[in-house]
Amino acid sequence: MSKPTGARVILRNLATACFRWALLIVVCVLIAIGLAVLGCAPHVLLGYGLGGVGAFGAAAVVVMLMGVALALLSWSFGPKRLLLSLLLLFVGASLLLTFPPKWAIRCFEEPGGPVFFLPTAEPLAALTIDDGVDPATTPLILEVLRTTGARATFFVLAESAEAHPELVEQIVREGHELGNHQIRDVPAVTLTPDELARQLNDADAILRRFGPVRWLRPGGGFVNDDVKRVAKRLDCQIALGSAFPMDPYIHSPRFVAAYLLGRVQPGAIVVLHDCGARGERTATALAAAIPQIEAQGIKLVTLSELAEASRN
Q: pTM here?
C-alpha cells in the first residue's frame, strides 16, 4: 500500500485543523449562548434583580465571555481538564457576581431605568439599608451612623413603620431619608401587577406621613415594567446598587466590612440589611468600616445627596 504523498498529507492536516477550529468555534458559540440565556433570561423575564440586586444581572455579560474562555481551556488541555475548567468558571463567575466591574453594571443601565451607580466627582457614596425597622437592631445602626456622622437611605417596610412609628420618626429626625420597600418583604416578581401596585401605593402613603419619599426599591430588587410604571406614577426613582456584600447570606461582619472598604468608591450605592441578626451584623460591620472609608476621604450619604452631587 502506497504512502500518502506530501501534498495529501498537507491537505489532510489542513482539513483536520480546519475541522478542529470549526468545532472550537461552534463549542464557543454554544457555551456563550447557553450562558447568555442562563444569565440574561432572568433579567428579561423577572427584571434587573437577578439574585436580589441589579449587579447580578450585569455580570451575565462577563459570565458569557468566560464561557468562551472555558471552551478554549477545554480544547487546549483536553477533555480530562473539562471538570477543572468548569470549576474555574464557577469560582470566577461567583467572584464576578460578588464583585461586578463597573463597566458590566453599566451594560444594564438605561435612561429612566433603575440606578445602580451615580457617578460624581465628589468623594461621596450612598449607604442604603433595607428591611427595617426593627426595635432591637435599628437603634444600633442609628447609633453607629450618629457616632460616625454618616447618613443613609432606609428602605423601610411599611408594615414595620406602622408598628414602630417612633423609629421611623427618629430616622428622619437624625438626617436620614426614607425609601419605599413595599408593605412586606415579598419578592416583587411573585406579585401580580395589581398586588404590586397596591403594595407600593400603600407603602408610599404610609411613609409620606413621616417625610418625603423619593426612592423605591422593590422586594428582592426585582424590577420589571410594572415596577417602573408604579414608580413613575409615584414620582420615585428606582434604586438598586453597585456594592452588595450579600450580607443576608454571608454572616461575617468582618467580611462585610472588608468588602465595603474595597468596593466603596465615589458614586457607589451600598446595599445592606436591617432586622434581626442581619441588623446586628450590619451595625457591627458599619462600626468597623465607616472610619476606614472616611480615612480614604469618602463620605457615606443619602441617595438624594449623592444624586444631587451627581447632577452638579
A: 0.75
